[in-house]
Amino acid sequence: MVVVDVVGVHDTRFTSTIKGAKLTMKKIKNRESIHPGSRKAEQVTRVNLRLNKLDQKKKALNTDKSNKMARYHYLANRISQLEPQPTRISLEDLHSLVIQYIDRDDDIYNQLKSDREIRDSKLKRYSGKTAREGEIESRKERELSEFNSGFVVPDLTDNITMDLFKQFPSARKISKKTKGKTHSSQVNQDNSDNQQLDEDELSKHGLDFNYLPQLKLIRVYSNDNSRSDLFQSGQNPIYNK
Length: 241
Description:
By secondary structure, this protein is mainly α. Helix content is 54%, strand content 7%.
């Protein structure tokens, strides 16, 4: 089954819902002086509850977006460091990159654990894992679970996808005119936005989340480095040529 994630559409509707709730709140006059238990007070309570619920959903969406982009940022950095620059890589190499990505915080985790154990040994106590250790464990457990069921990555075994991936726009290039829209016209027509991946640029600004639908994405699996299947057909017109 092919799944196409139309990025930006849900975010736009979600933002409109929040704006609508805030507008409703503004229309309620004299909110500070209304009598508790009145219909206006009940309306204010309902709107506040809705705004709080929407705010929680927005934070969850932003966290999910950040988690999704972390893998692309990592792969972009790794690809930018390769010499000579590849036109494509093997499925086995892509599988290896995923493993390296999932294991990326192992050194930090081991150092934190070692420091804690040394400190506890000197003080003759057990302080328990730090918050950072817990975060790394949870993140790695989540990503390993996805790897078992199919880890989503750009199909860098395909030279068209590799070429488009190297043109991944920096987030700072988003303007009010293009925000929330796909970048097919820019990728094909505007060479100024098609710079090769730059490590400094990536670290400062990150990648443009709205570019993802342009790319062909596949799933790779932990138990078989020769297995992959299609997750998303790239929307960029170059795939149809």
